[in-house]
């Protein structure tokens, strides 16, 4: 690599700040989340909105409830999950040429949204809340009530720098609950993949998924192995998913099912089935943002209201406006935390209650390689705003 190639994707006016940013990353030994990124690499979207990527193909989320057997449901859960990855991890690279750093949410930040009923799939609704600032944790619930499918989870990130890449360990998990026609329900535990952000040298970051994540439930253990493009070989965004029956867990299936392909394009069965498994070439469905106030308008802590001017500055290239408004918001939030500390009254969460140990996680992670053996959780209080009831 020649020196002239470094930062070639960075706007000329921003190359000095990008170089300083890379040096700061390389010199830090701990978590990188506190670093301030140069304005051109910022996304106009807060992390509080990111749970919407779980459901930008709402027909696949709804289809989980239509499966007739435990094996069909396990495959439907896997198909839906794999189909969420493109939106979560490649859409910004495809639309604007590189990965962008999302805005760090403020404690108590909120986002509400929905996907309308189409072709009998039912309405799907979304609620997210920033439940912690240090460490930053986002809790969310996605529900299609008419179909009886509900996802509740939380997500945090711990970032570090290694051999020219940013490594993001995603902390947290989600639990998917499916109501059955018999009146019972099945639950699935979903863990999160680890990310590697490459392309920093050029100033054009992109995400690759690494290691493994799990889907456990309905009598099956699903292991998804991510294999990205290496220096000398491999294909970007490749994966191999293996679905194995759990003896003694109620499932009647005995065969192992294997699916392979690229999560941002398509995949097929390579064992235990035939033909195509998933295909995300069709356009995704962007969430419709909904105001959570009594009159349907957005409140001051709703993400699109809170970051409105910052987002405007980023989208229009007015980085001075973006930085000024971003600093104002961050200073206001710091002062709010100081005031709370002085009064001895901590910030009260609006929609979630913390739980020290998640019994569903603990039970479903048994006899797997999922670590740690237990995790905390955030319990949704079932208090949807009127606009989403």
From TrEMBL:
Cellular component GO terms, alphabetical: cytosol; membrane
Top-level taxonomic group: Eukaryota
Residue ranges of coiled coil: none
GO MF, one example: oxysterol binding
Entry-linked PANTHER family: OXYSTEROL-BINDING PROTEIN HOMOLOG 4-RELATED, OXYSTEROL-BINDING PROTEIN-RELATED
Record family assignment: Belongs to the OSBP family.
Protein name: Oxysterol-binding protein
């Amino acid at each position: 690599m020649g020196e002239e190639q470094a930062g070639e994707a960075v706007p000329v006016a921003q190359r000095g700040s990008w170089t300083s940013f890379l040096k700061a990353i390389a010199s830090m030994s701990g978590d990188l989340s506190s670093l301030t990124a140069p304005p051109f690499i910022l996304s106009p979207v807060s992390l509080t909105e990111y749970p919407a990527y779980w459901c930008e193909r709402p027909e696949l989320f709804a289809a989980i409830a239509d499966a007739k057997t435990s094996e069909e449901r396990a495959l439907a859960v896997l198909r839906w999950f794999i189909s969420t990855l493109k939106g979560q991890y490649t859409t910004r690279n495809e639309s604007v040429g590189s990965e962008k750093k999302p805005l760090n949410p403020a404690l108590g930040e909120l986002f509400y949204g929905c996907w309308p009923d189409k072709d009998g799939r039912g309405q799907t609704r979304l609620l997210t809340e920033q439940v912690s600032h240090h460490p930053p944790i986002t809790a969310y619930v996605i529900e299609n009530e008419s179909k009886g499918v509900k996802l509740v989870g939380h997500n945090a990130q711990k970032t570090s720098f290694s051999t020219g890449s940013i490594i993001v360990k995603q902390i947290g998990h989600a639990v998917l609950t499916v109501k059955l026609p018999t009146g019972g329900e099945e639950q699935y535990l979903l863990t999160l993949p680890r990310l590697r952000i490459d392309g920093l040298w050029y100033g054009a970051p992109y995400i690759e998924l690494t290691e493994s994540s799990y889907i456990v439930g309905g009598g099956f253990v699903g292991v998804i192995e991510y294999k990205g493009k290496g220096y000398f070989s491999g294909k970007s965004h490749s994966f191999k998913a293996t679905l194995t029956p759990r003896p003694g867990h109620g499932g009647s299936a005995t065969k192992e099912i294997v699916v392979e392909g690229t999560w941002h394009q398509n995949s097929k069965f390579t064992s235990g089935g035939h033909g195509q498994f998933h295909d995300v070439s069709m356009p995704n469905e962007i969430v419709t943002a909904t105001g959570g106030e009594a009159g349907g308008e957005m409140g001051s802590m709703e993400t699109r209201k809170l970051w409105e001017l910052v987002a405007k500055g980023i989208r229009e290239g007015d980085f001075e406006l973006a930085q000024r408004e971003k600093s104002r918001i961050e200073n206001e939030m710091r002062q709010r935390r100081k005031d709370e500390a002085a009064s001895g009254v901590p910030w009260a969460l609006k929609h979630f209650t913390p739980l020290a140990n998640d019994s569903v996680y603990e039970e479903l992670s048994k006899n797997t390689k999922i670590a740690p053996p237990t995790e905390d959780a955030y319990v949704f209080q079932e208090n949807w705003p009127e606009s989403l009831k």
